[in-house]
């Protein structure tokens, strides 16, 4: 700690989800020590990253390919248990096994330029001065709500996937689900047996993908998102490039008419939703399964955004500021992608720190 109360480290990791823990692991593996050389900050109350907040009916068996963190397998988990519990316990064990010493709850409020080429990380628990930053703040904290005319007049309840309580809460209600991603289809399939009626609306017709999502398809999808962030455009959702996997539950939903999609409505009325062609659907609830955006507001003082609205990233390195790595962003926004990105970021940061010995 220097005499201004600011603590000096080589690397600050913001976020202790899959991406932040993978980054912290690679720092440890290559000789950095927690609390001396790097610090991991997370504003959630417990281990688990965003998984700790996911709804109880999202059981471990229902997640589509959760990749283990580097260096410790997740074995023997009961597929019927909520993924929020299974993954939180696994992350907790992981943090202890590798002595990552995550500080929580610590909210990072702003990152600014400091002196001597350092970055200042301002938090609810004081300020750290660092030579490099791994930003792994995910998307859960920034649910995206589109705006539609009349939205504020709706007398029923509106909620986002981020607040989805599980299907029982919709018993006897007429529910409109907005959004063509994996969350929207899962919500519909769960809610339909409990609700009086469900309606599915999406902006674009959903694309169902036959056959398994193999490695080649995965690489293709990642390459498309990668190209966007390389150009400084905001990353697109994974489903927009992969399509929805046509599994048995989805097939059944299509056959039952639960996944019979309507185009986006034109306005919201006090008692439902309405289209310009005169169609009206009564609703008690509008559930916005409209995705998330990267939670990067704390980086705003650094002015990293490009005219295209995104942050230009090469690998994980921010092109405008090579001290900063975005891990779990864009093409690495999956559990497997976050693992790889954590390794890439640490490799680059080690090179950067070796090239630029600490200024006095
Ligand atoms: C419903 C749902 C299901 C999914 N299922 C899968 C799946 O099956 N397989 C898969 O590969 N991917 C899945 N994903 C994507 C998945 O979220 C990512 O793959 C991965 O878990 C994200 O990890 P992360 O570390 O980037 O983010 P997170 O897990 O969101 O971690 C970010 C952390 O940063 C912290 N944080 C944020 N802002 C700040 C701040 N300002 N200060 C301090 N701390 C901060 C948060 O508290 C959080 O702990 C799913 C996503 C959703 C929404």
From TrEMBL:
GO terms assigned for molecular function: flavin adenine dinucleotide binding; monooxygenase activity
Entry-linked Pfam families: Pyr_redox_3
Record keywords: Oxidoreductase
Name listed for the protein in its UniProt record: Pyridine nucleotide-disulfide oxidoreductase
Taxonomic source organism: Streptomyces spongiae
